[in-house]
Design goal:
Layout lengths: L26 E2 L11 H10 L12 H11 L6 E4 L1 H13 L6 E4 L5 H8 L4 E4 L18 E5 L11 H9 L6 E4 L3 H4 L13 E6 L12 E5 L1 H14 L6 H12 L1 H24 L3 E2 L6 E5 L5 H10 L2 E2 L11 E5 L3 H22 L1
Parallel strand pairs: 1-11, 3-4, 3-5, 5-6, 6-7
Antiparallel strand pairs: 2-8, 7-8, 9-10, 10-12
Helix pairs in contact: 1-8, 2-8, 3-4, 3-7, 9-11
The chain binds pyridoxal-5'-phosphate.
Length: about 350
């Protein structure tokens, strides 16, 4: 650390992204990316847009917002886009959290929430999941601050029903409730229709997971127009060009090609179900994931050990060195072939383990 680092930030613990390997070829099941390439339409639109990159991107993101508004049946002034949903979430922390409205989220969820709070000097409270790693909705009634709930929840993939979310919204009339739907396309369920009835709801979405565009960085929020206007005040104070032209047209192209995305999601869900069955046969216990990953604890082996052994054999999964979940690994659902290799490799590892113990 240099001696110039601001006092405000020197103790900051930054977010640790999942590894992005360089040279070595891994089967990459650690950051919930899609195994499928971006849609053709998205790629065509980006190709066409290259020539215009001498100009700034549209700070209002008009065409993209109109397309999103049409798809989700809202008005376009109820949509704000960002440089990945991480950017959108950061803007939400800055807009709706302060000393009086601390951020509130589960103890096990997306690891960026506490970092957004810290970097913005916002206090936060973590609410423990129950023993089955489920959110207890009663803990959020009211939340006593701005609530952040990933639905499906990050790492576990477990979902609250729309009815449960509605109960939380009704109990939190005096604060904002953020539903992070990064994985909602894999469940086919969404709270977006509730934005018409609840002026305290923000739904956050991303093109990174289901839409095969993690590398382009595009996310968005849908909420009532007043909340979106507040967020735009912050956005225009940070970076009005937070969505670049290629991201914008990639998003538009993807929305024009949504059958492709739907099919990809269906394939991933089918593979998730077969992977779940096979891991259970191998003695894993798992949460009921409705996302594009499974959260699996090996009966006999520590999660960190399994992570290392898979890595040695060329497969990357995600392990979180956090007490309550250190038995688990989060495994992204890749192609059917990737999952075959995963299962075979785990079988090998388990066999070696039993032989060593004999
Ligand atoms: C991946 C993820 C994000 C971030 O997505 P980007 O749009 O790539 O920034 C946000 N929230 C959750 C729960 C995620 O899993």
């Amino acid at each position: 650390m240099s001696r110039y680092f601001s006092e405000r930030h020197r103790d900051l613990i930054a977010y640790t992204p999942g590894e992005q390997p360089g040279e070595k070829k891994y089967i990459k099941l650690n950051t919930n990316e899609s195994p499928f390439p971006p849609s053709l339409k998205a790629r065509e639109r980006m190709q066409e847009a290259l020539e215009g990159l001498n100009l700034y991107s549209d700070p209002e993101c008009r065409f993209l917002r109109e397309k999103l508004a049409e798809k989700y049946d809202v008005n376009s002034n109820m949509v704000m886009a960002g440089n990945g949903s991480d950017d959108v979430l950061n803007i939400i922390f800055m807009t709706f959290c302060d000393e009086k409205n601390p951020a509130v989220f589960p103890d096990i969820t997306y690891g960026f929430y506490p970092v957004f709070a810290d970097v913005n000097g916002i206090p936060y409270r973590e609410i423990p999941l129950d023993d089955n790693l489920r959110i207890r909705i009663n803990d959020y009634m009211p939340a006593g601050g701005t609530a952040f709930i990933a639905n499906p929840n990050a790492h576990t993939g477990i979902m609250l029903t729309r009815g449960e979310i509605e109960e939380i919204l009704r109990a939190n009339r005096n604060n904002v409730v953020v539903i992070d739907e990064a994985y909602a396309d894999f469940s086919g369920k969404s709270c977006i229709p509730l934005v018409h009835d609840y002026d305290n709801l923000i739904v956050v979405r991303t093109f990174s997971k289901s839409c095969s565009l993690a590398g382009i960085r595009l996310g968005f929020a849908i909420a009532c127009d007043e909340l979106i206007a507040d967020m735009n005040t912050i956005r225009y104070s940070l970076n009005p060009y937070n969505v670049n032209t290629l991201a914008m047209v990639a998003g538009i192209g993807t929305l024009e090609d949504y059958e492709y995305i739907k099919n990809a999601c269906e394939t991933i869900v089918t593979t998730r179900e077969s992977t779940t069955d096979r891991l259970k046969e191998l003695g894993f216990s798992m949460t009921d994931s409705e996302a594009n990953f499974v959260f699996a604890a090996c009966g006999g082996m520590d999660g960190g050990e399994l992570y290392e052994k898979l890595k040695e054999r060329g497969i990357l999964v995600r392990h979180f060195p956090k007490e309550r979940i250190c038995k688990y690994n989060r495994i992204t659902i890749g192609s059917a072939e990737d999952m075959d290799v995963l299962i075979e490799t785990i079988e090998e590892i388990l066999k070696e383990e039993t032989n060593e113990n004999c």
